[in-house]
Amino acid sequence: MPNPEVPTDCNDARVSTGNAGLDDILGGGLDADRMYLYEGRPGAGKTTLALEFLLDGARRGERVLYITLSETERELQLVARRHGWDLTGVEIVELVPSETMLDQSQEITLLQPAEIELGETTRLILEQVSAVNPSRVVVDSLSELRLLAQSSLRYRRQVLALKQFFANRNCTVVLLDDMTSQQNDLQLHSISHGVVLLEQLAIDYGAERRRLRVIKMRGIEFRGGFHDIKIVRGGIEVYPRLVASDHQSEFSGDFTPSGNGELDKLLGGGLERGTNALLIGAAGVGKSSLALTYAITAAQRGERSAIFAFDEGRGTIEARSRALGLDLASAIDTGLVLFQQIDPAEMSPGEFAAIVRRRVECDGARMVVIDSLNGYLNAMPDGRFLILQMHELLTYLAQQGVVTILVLAQHGMVGPVEAPLDISYLSDAVVMLRYFEHAGVVRRAVSVVKKRSGFHEHTIREFQLGTRGVVVGPPLKEFSGVLSGMPTYTGGSAPLLPGDACAAD
Question: Is domain 246-458 in CATH 3.40.50.300, yes or no?
Answer without folding.
Answer: yes
